[in-house]
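note to self: dont lose this again. the chain is below, predicted strucutre after it. 249 aa total, dont forget to put it in the shared folder this time
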Amino acid sequence: MTPISAQISLNGSRLVRFLSDMNVSDVKVSHQYFAERLGDVIDINESIRLSSAHSSLSTTRFNPREVVTEQVIEEFFQLRTAIVQSIVNSLSPDTAVSRIKLPAVSGPEQAYEPYLRFYQAHQRDIDFKVQGYRSTLRTTVAGRSEKLAQLAALDLALENTLLDHNRKLFVVVPRLLGKRYEYLWQQHEKTLATQKHDDDDGQSSSRNTLWLDTFYADIQGLLLAELDVRLQPVLGLIEALNEEVDKNQ
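---
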């Protein structure tokens, strides 16, 4: 097992489990469901393009270049650490500076829309950084061997085919998060009703913010789970590179 696979699982079910645990979807989600739906995601024109790309792999040009696997792995962890830190910092505005700002609580009935925009801003940031690194990684991996050059070409074709579909699927995540927000807010209102006549030296005021703390934790958990899903193709390329290096040692 490589250092990558030892620290980050290639299993994308973390996002599925998180959404299931939040109980915000009326649809039973499973790995089998996603596998069955994959055929519906790729239409006939896209299937033809993928088939054409696969058929042309034998003509892929291989331009040898020096590839240092340790550097590749280090760059991957630098990318992931930077994105994780950005997510954490944005949810800790009192202790860190972040480009993506957590919405200020404007009143007891704050709408979900500011949090929707906050989550979407992180999605765009993650997508931009991961796709940029994936493109660079393909070039690096393709310089190791003819086999990996073909893999990089196939990865590019697959990325182009599924890009729009993936973005449409990820759009659903913050919408489901909105359901979680509504649930927590309703539970908060019930708590307020029971504390209406409670005057225990300000302790009730402290408890009244717990629902929002829980929601912030949900945002962070979802973003981190989504990041791992988006990084899976990247990890696949790195794993293939590691296997090629190990095989030739």
